[in-house]
Amino acid sequence: MEPSDLKTNENLQEAGTSSKTPGSLLNKPVSRRDVLKMAGIGGLGLLLGGGAAGALFKGTKAFTRKESVLNAGRTNEKVHPFYGKHQSGIITPSQNFLCFASFDLTVASINEVRELFQKWTLAAANMTQGSMLGDSAANTSLNLPPADTGEAAGLIPSRTTITFGAGPSFFDSRFGLASKRPAAFPDLPKFRGDALQPQWCGGDIGVQVCADDLQVAFHAVRNLARIARGSAVLRWTQEGFQRTGAAEPANGTPRNLMGFKDGTGNPDVNDAKLMDEVVWAQAGDGAAWMAGGSYMVARRIRMRLEVWDRSTLDDQQRTFGRYRDSGAPLGGQDEFDPLDLNAKDAAGQPALPVTSHSRLAHMDGNTKLLRRAYSYSSGLDAKTGQLDAGLFFICFQRNVSKQFIAMQQILAASDKLNEYISHVGSAGFACFPGAAEGGYIGDTLF
Amino acid sequence: MNIRSSLALSALAATLLTAGCSNSSTDTNSANAASTSSNTGTAAASASSSSDSSSAPASASAAASADFTAAIDSYREYVITETDALVKDTGAFVDAINSGNIEEAKKLYAPARMHYERIEPIAEALGDLDPNIDARDGDVDPSEWRGFHRLEKALWEDKSTDGTKEYADRLLSDTKLLRAKVETVDIEPSLLVTGAVELLNEVSTSKVTGEEDRYSRTDLYDFAANVEGAEKIYELLKPNLADKDPELEKKIGDSFTVLQNELNSYAKDGGYVSYDVLKEDEVRKLSQNLDALAEPLSQMGTLLGV
């Protein structure tokens, strides 16, 4: 937790030396963990004393350092920066949990949209760094609802990322942005077999919150929704999960709910050149405001788990085109072996069935996108008594037409996996470039 | 009516009564003491703890500087006017029931209740009156269930006034008791501020869900009355609010307009359409607009000092 803690300490020190007015102190972000420590020392009411707070903070500092050492071995202490060239949460290694929220704007003017994004940016910057929302006074006044809803108080940042994107409807006639809609971000066509339900589709704004703690992630979505009241309303939300880092310290490719490794073929996020080719929109792509951003497609894919569970292992493996155990392509040895499209089995048939998922998704080998999917479980389907569970598929790309749409058309037409899955939700979001400190998310567009 | 909030408000009212004597100057002094004390933790701690013991309740109730006398006087007048109307209209409703005129009673039911719903926080602060007048089936022990909703069930579900005279007469006497009590109820600024939000929370928890008037489906009357009651409080505090936080004042005003316009679209024959008529997405929109209003409204506490 070094970077964030140091930063927090700097803030605290600054605060301690400027004892003139309570305001200068109270406007500083307060670490969620320090809030609890301070409460332990003397009660939050002390903060209102302003002048005395410096001494209090100084007293806290040593305490914080000691804590840092104790926590040094914890893997999820890392803090992702909120400001930067790109938004975090795209090429960021997947955290354990997802809370996704789709919003519809209720305001009428672009100025009000801008105000919302300015507020959201500040809040997201605070929450990803593990700071409380609102200054100390706003969380201690007995006359007001606290500015921060409080369920993340005392919790570490948990590698939280918050990623914002604009949906197709954002570019309709309401805000005068129709001409800004990127050509690389068209409406998705209706794919064969789509069973889309309106309650899981679309939205003016998509917010992807990922964190290693579900309560921390939920806190972020809840507070963003609260801040948006009067400006935007929730349209749908979806929680997602994958095996936690703690459950698999080796950090291998996670398995989906069908038991197969999912994401083996992902491009290497450490290859900056490749990311520029596959993920990041470029200034010359036609929409300059999107340079450094990325296009997200999210699909809620229900798995017919009861049906899958009564399919033979052979059927399951031929559906994916991979061995369940190792994740290696059929005919191969290792998970990361390249797909051999020409290999034949003993009977002279393609070792990798022509309708297998991995073979079709591989396409020509040059069409790639970055998958960042999570499993979901949303209780029972009341009608059938079966599990409502599956994959909340999220992918990022530079051009939706050339990447997701091209791939999904092939999969929708022929994928053997279609027997076991059903696309019930769909949304696309143009995820803005990152904001510089002092700027706000979306400032290149508004 | 909501038992839990009723209890909470009773407790709040009790606090207000005890805290009422701590005036604003105490509060200001202790705040000054804390902020001007020397730059050491102990000094602040002692200043803070001494203020804790003497004026902590006051900081939650009394305003630092603003003068709420005019708003409180006007609100008391409003409460008395509404309670007068409640007694009068309930009298007519009860007469219709006691003369077995079911159709007439059904017509009078929802409009009479609106006077009550507009001032519900006050009634809830007055002990048992709220459950006696407004409990729904299941809110209280079945043997104690009476009031508006008991009669609503008789009219709409049992379709009979047999055996209702006792309930009808009790309802009228309960409203008269309410009228007598509002004369003396202690109205603190914080009761105004929390009362406005409380009214909208009433809508959120029972009217939006359609649980309030489950037999008559007249939930929108109550919905509108709760909103009107909250708007009245906002109107009275508006000058103070405009002074303290004009942006918040405007935001609340705009949100009331949006919600009122939406409610107006369901107006019919001087009242409102049956709640059954509303489609799912219409209910959702009402609910979301209500939340959009209640959030800034909950910031009115800023008037009492932060």
The termini of chain B sit apart by 30 Å
Structural class of chain B: mainly alpha
The portion of residues assigned to helices of chain A is 25-40%
Envelope shape of chain A: globular
What oligomeric state best describes the polypeptide chains here?
heterodimer
Query: What fraction, in percent, of the residue positions of chain B are helical?
Result: over 70%
Proportion of residues in β-strands of chain B: under 5%
CATH top level label of chain B: Mainly Alpha
Residue-averaged pLDDT of chain B, rounded? Answer: 82
pLDDT below 50 for ≥5 consecutive residues: which ranges of chain A? Answer: 1-26, 42-76
Q: Note the main sheet of chain A.
A: 9 strands, antiparallel
- CATH architecture name of chain B: Up-down Bundle
Q: Overall 3D geometry of chain B? A: globular
Across the major sheet of chain B, the strand order is: 1-2
Describe the protein's architecture and organization.
The complex is a heterodimer of chains A (446) and B (306). Chain A has a domain at 2-73. Helix content of chain A is 29%, strand content 17%. Chain A is built from 12 helices and 9 strands. In chain A, a hairpin with a 4-residue loop joins strand 7 and strand 8. In chain A, helix 1 (2-17) packs antiparallel against helix 4 and helix 5 (110-128) runs antiparallel to helix 7 (214-228). The two termini of chain A are 35 Å apart. Residues 1-26 and 42-76 of chain A have low confidence and may be disordered. Chain B has one domain: Up-down Bundle (A middle domain of Talin 1), CATH 1.20.1420. Chain B has a two-stranded antiparallel ribbon. In chain B, helix 5 packs antiparallel against helix 8 (148-158). Mean pLDDT of chain B is 82; it is low at 1-65. Chains A and B meet through helix 4 of A and helix 2, helix 3 and helix 13 of B.
